[in-house]
Design brief:
With 295 residues, the protein is an alpha+beta fold. The protein is built from nine helices and ten strands.
Length: 295
């Protein structure tokens, strides 16, 4: 990817990562480093030897993820049925790079895609992960912000209308807004918030040998509306596996419509923002929007 996705995006390359690792973690200075191709939006990823990955925030908004994962994932990991990131070291800004960064254990697998997964099995496995996450004790857990993923869907109304306008004839505005209004009409989640991942998109799900193996990128982890974690229903699953996913989670009608609203929001806002810079994200958002509008 050559074009910057964000106006305030920091530049990274293999030479920078090599200098930072050599000076701050000399025990790994002899390991080879290579960039990892990804359509993720918040971090540049580098493979460090065979066992590690270096995650470099692209912008200030991505900086808090490493600290959040270091705080919560060691506590959560034994209670979850899929692997999660394991942080090995926290790096400091230097050499003109302005952000804290981190080294993680490398998780084997590829980003989940419809053509490589047994989707019915994936629906069962991912539902089990979500159920387990929701039962983890919440003492001292951070609530999501009202405007954050898993907060209040209605606060994003202006953003959806603005994105639809920006898309112009590249999308069916009337159909999008009808679906959006249906989701808003059910109102907010009115029970106790639960742990949510908040960003269960295909790029944050790893598969190995046709099965889901890991969940990554816990930047939006917190207590919020569990409907947010229904994103895979429209971003990953087909009609049959979507139905199985819903059944496994016993999702009521209102939560299903809110979940569809979160999927619509993510897709519609992503499309104009990444249209010229991130074809992978545009492809994913386009497919998700098609599934949302198909009912």
């Amino acid at each position: 990817m050559t074009a910057k996705m964000h106006a305030d995006q920091a530049d990274t390359d293999v030479a920078l990562v090599r200098r930072l690792v050599a000076e701050q973690f000399p025990q790994w200075s002899q390991l080879p480093i290579r960039a990892v191709d990804s359509h993720g939006t918040d971090h540049d990823i580098y493979r460090l030897g065979a066992e590690f990955a270096v995650r470099m925030p692209r912008m200030a908004g991505g900086v808090g993820q490493a600290a959040q994962e270091a705080r919560w994932l060691p506590f959560m990991a034994p209670q979850l049925p899929l692997a999660v990131p394991v942080q090995r070291a926290a790096g400091a800004p230097d050499h003109g790079y302005p952000f804290a960064w981190a080294v993680y254990e490398w998780l084997p697998g590829r980003h989940a895609q419809e053509g490589r997964l047994d989707l019915d099995t994936a629906a069962v496995d991912l539902a089990a992960f979500i159920r387990a996450l929701q039962t983890i004790p919440t003492a001292d857990a951070p609530p999501v912000r009202p405007e954050g993923r898993g907060g209040l869907l209605a606060v994003h109304d202006d953003a959806v209308h603005r994105a639809v306008t920006e898309l112009g004839d590249r999308a069916d505005a009337a159909a999008i807004l009808r679906a959006w209004e249906e989701s808003l009409a059910v109102g907010p989640w009115d029970a106790s918030p639960v742990w949510i991942h908040g960003d269960l998109l295909p790029g944050n799900l790893l598969e190995l040998d046709g099965r889901l193996s890991a969940v990554i990128d816990f930047a939006t982890l917190g207590l919020g509306d569990p409907a947010t974690d229904l994103l895979p229903a429209w971003n990953l699953f087909d009609q049959d596996s979507r139905r199985r996913f819903r059944t496994e989670l016993a999702v009521d009608d209102a939560s299903w419509l809110r979940g569809r609203g979160w999927a619509l929001l993510q897709a519609v806002v992503a499309l104009p923002y990444y249209w010229d810079t991130n074809p992978g994200m545009v492809g994913q958002a386009t497919r998700a929007l098609e599934h949302v509008l198909a009912g």
